[in-house]
């Protein structure tokens, strides 16, 4: 909707280009697989089967996708304001602290449906607070948000190590993690959803935070395109001068946007902590904050693009794990290479094929690239 | 007469619908200083950019020394001996003079050898043309005049025989400018050809041999400087273009709506752009501010409308002060009935990536009529946009279309519709018809007159003198940050042109 590129019809912009990027990424990944002496087609089959082959596999894919929806939305909201929040990793990590505090304090007294909303608030509040400091520094002091948010990832990691080792670890335990939550602080699984289609999910951790992620995707759409605040965020993102002219406070918008972004990243912690592990472990975020950047880029910062992009990365995570298991020549690191290639082509090289495709479209059908519309007359 | 140093034949260049250069013919004799004068937007810079290879002409021929050539890049221009000194210097600030001079013209793979060669060559050039600069000085530590000298040296080092200077005195103090002129004369004596682009008549008279006047993309006249007068040039420059004078009755000025007192504004570099400006505007009148672009008009309206901080002075809106020093909130000023059509509609007045209807509420998005609590009332916004589209005849009439896809004139109508339909008491309008097609100009002018007749105060800033003259009830002329004169709407073009060029002030001072 509000992409700055106006030259292609929507379906090409949102469908064709990402698919071409993806195909190229997989071709290059296939070459890598060839290099290690495996059959790329077979590897692809294993990967797809690993992601979708059984109810359990699908549930795992969606479980990972849940993480990426949250972090992808977090990055996207900041993008709309022209801010590059690469601190999703740290914001999610600290968000986990919010989940832990709520669950550890309340799991003996309340049922899950009372704890869950409080845990949402806890994770969002701490994620937002973690984003507030870089946001304040950017808005008031001009410290670049990319630098400060990445620094805050390291600080978050250190803070959490300290808390897990010295504060939250139960006495006598050897592992740097909190105690297990009681069942009343564990989120209900969502196996029933897949079981309706006759699939067995067994112990897969897909849980209701997946639904929360979808609700958040919808709310982000409402926020960005249907609220006054979203209007101000987009104005700032496209043209700070126009925002100034329109009487929109740059400081206020940067801070609010970053706090929303941090809150979304923080909510990611609900999925692994309340939904799966039922305790806070070291490094539970496992790079989801960074994957969120690729998801947001690939989804063009629109929730309708972010959800499928997150599922794609869920496929790569889950299918990749199966692949590493099935084909010993393909190690866990190879999977990271494939994921990296997808990020490279779908994210960083997003526009590589755009000029060629634009030329192609212009030669086939000038109307479709807006040549006639630009005249302003005769419509 | 010898073969012309440069000959341009039938040069045409359009940017979209705007014809920046049409059928330009120009002959520049070798060993002379040739001035090209014209208002901003007359097409001088476009023409010189074509000559220097930044743009390609749509049609036409360039001959250098009698031979037809094609210039596709600045390197092609340098190869045939054309050098350019840009208005904004192209120097690496933390490099030394010597490093800047050889930048891009290094003769060896290793720098050391190039530097040794360049040093002796540079010293020769400095001696020959009286352009002394310490080769080891760092650029950012040099005053502007010397930086400009480095630019000239750069061009000479690359073997320039023809030197183009784009508004070279814009950044110089008067003594520095005088020194530059002495250097240019010396270069001429050494056989170089110099093309001087400027809008300052005084410079043309002081230094050129021949002068060509451009107006609205065409070359209107070429004169020998000795045989022309400032008055004639001013008239040629400003033009006698017959623009339909808008029908308007007598102004009926009412109470003072906007009062500006001793306003001083500096730009981000600390240069004083608006210097102690005072004026009042009453309801029911249009006050026009004439002036060549860059003489402080932009900063003046930005300060009044809360976009830029003022250094000192005060502004009263309906008798109540606007905090111009602490920077007022444009949103609050809108609530108080001050609407602003900014000069730069692409980056300030509109968000081009937005749909038309989204732009039709920019700045008024706080208005409850467009909102449902925190949500935008999309139906209300779109209906409102459709009403404005109809009322202002904005085409194409699709409020969901991306704003970038509207023509300049229609984009301007989107801004005007938004600002005027809020029924403001004071309307500030910057360059209302810049890049706007002829049909829309008349429409916009009629709207502005209608605003006046409803008793609104209108402050109009334009570099189009015709526009100022046909719309304004009073005309203030700005030059170098000051209001140098006030005239009625019956002022002649020549009279205003001289004020705009600062001639009267300069002569009075001498």
Explain how this protein is built.
- The complex is a heterodimer of chains A (about 375) and B (about 500).
- With about 375 residues, chain A is mostly helical.
- Chain A contains 16 helices and no strands.
- Chain A has helices at about 10-35, 40-50, 55-80, 90-105, 110-140, 145-165, 190-195, 210-225, 230-240, 240-245, 250-265, 270-275, 290-300, 305-325, 330-350, 355-365.
- In chain A, helix 4 (about 90-105) packs across helix 11, helix 8 runs antiparallel to helix 14 and helix 14 (about 305-325) packs antiparallel against helix 15 (about 330-350).
- Chain A is globular.
- Chain B has about 500 residues and is α/β, with parallel strands linked by helices.
- Chain B folds into two domains: about 5-240, P-loop containing nucleotide triphosphate hydrolases (Rossmann fold, 3-Layer(aba) Sandwich); about 255-510, P-loop containing nucleotide triphosphate hydrolases (Rossmann fold).
- Chain B has helices spanning about 45-50, 75-80, 95-100, 110-130, 145-155, 175-190, 200-205, 230-240, 295-305, 330-335, 345-350, 355-360, 380-390, 410-420, 440-455, 465-470, 495-500, 505-510; strands at about 5-15, 20-30, 35-40, 60-65, 65-70, 80-85, 160-165, 195-200, 210-215, 220-225, 255-265, 270-280, 285-290, 310-315, 320, 340, 370, 375, 425-430, 455-460, 475-480, 480-490.
- The two termini of chain B are about 40 Å apart.
- Residues about 505-510 of chain B have low confidence and may be disordered.
- At the A-B interface, helix 9 and helix 10 of A face helix 10, helix 11 and strand 18 of B.
- Chain A: This is ABC transporter permease.
- Chain A: InterPro entries: ABC_transp_permease.
- Chain A: It comes from Mesorhizobium zhangyense.
Helices and strands in order:
The complex is a heterodimer of chains A (379) and B (510).
Chain A: H1 10-35, H2 40-52, H3 55-80, H4 88-106, H5 112-141, H6 145-167, H7 191-195, H8 209-226, H9 228-238, H10 240-245, H11 250-267, H12 270-277, H13 288-298, H14 303-326, H15 332-348, H16 354-364
Chain B: E1 6-15, E2 18-28, E3 33-38, H1 44-52, E4 59-64, E5 67-69, H2 74-79, E6 82-85, H3 97-102, H4 111-129, H5 144-157, E7 162-166, H6 174-189, E8 193-198, H7 201-207, E9 210-215, E10 218-224, H8 230-238, E11 256-266, E12 272-282, E13 285-290, H9 297-304, E14 312-317, E15 320-322, H10 330-335, E16 338-341, H11 345-349, H12 356-359, E17 371-372, E18 375-376, H13 378-391, H14 408-420, E19 426-430, H15 438-453, E20 457-461, H16 465-471, E21 474-479, E22 482-488, H17 493-500, H18 503-509
